[in-house]
Amino acid sequence: MKGIVNKILFAAAAILALASCVKSEEALVKKLAGDWYYETVESDVPVQVYVSFAKDMTFQLFQKVGDGAFRRHIGTYTFDGTLLDGVYSDKTEWKEAKTVTIDGDVQTAVGVKTGETITYVRKLVPATVRYHYTDAVKSMALESEPWL
Predict the structure, then answer these.
(1) How far out from the chain centre does Cα 37 lie?
(2) What is the β-pairing status of strands 45-53 and 83-88?
(3) What is the per-residue pLDDT for 132?
């Protein structure tokens, strides 16, 4: 009888520990989830990037280089609270994983290979971008290359 009680207590403790891990992972993803914006000028060409991270571990990246249209890239991501990485829907990996810190509405992403730092701010993807874009395909010019 004592052995059965111990097994039941062990099983209950394992279930609680697993639930705790799941809640912890959900909290990390919840912190990242949402829309982020980055804007810069490279070689006198303006660049705008919106990234939308969903809680289901998918993302949408909208980017506009110069006067062109916004291009959309989609895929999945992983995030452990510090390291952010992803894969596009065509199975192409991101250029590099990022070490991410989030402080309120500011996200700082540092490339693990290059050390390049990009600062995003929390900002909703405008409807004019979210619903009026061109899907990026491999045959497109350089401006459709994914930013991540």
Answers:
(1) 12
(2) unpaired
(3) 82
Amino acid at 76: T
pLDDT in tens, 26-39: 666 778 999 999 98
What does the pLDDT read at residue 7?
43
For residue 35, what are its two tokens? 């829309």
Contact 14, 21 (CB under 8 A): no
Give the Cα separation of 118 and 101 in Å (integer): 11
Whether 89 has a pLDDT exceeding 80, the answer reads yes
Give the DSSP H/E element, type plus range, for residue 37.
strand 34-42
**Can you say whether residue 104 is alpha, beta or left, with left for phi > 0 and alpha for psi between -120 and 50 degrees?**
left
Type and span of the H or E element at 85: strand 83-88
* Predicted TM-score (pTM) of this structure: 0.75
In 33-83, alpha helices (H): none
User: DSSP secondary-structure letter at 125?
Assistant: P
To which H or E segment does residue 9 belong?
helix 2-32
Q: Which residue has the tokens 């891990």?
A: 21
* Residue 57 DSSP symbol: S
pLDDT given for residue 18 in this prediction: 43
Helix (H) or strand (E) holding 6: helix 2-32
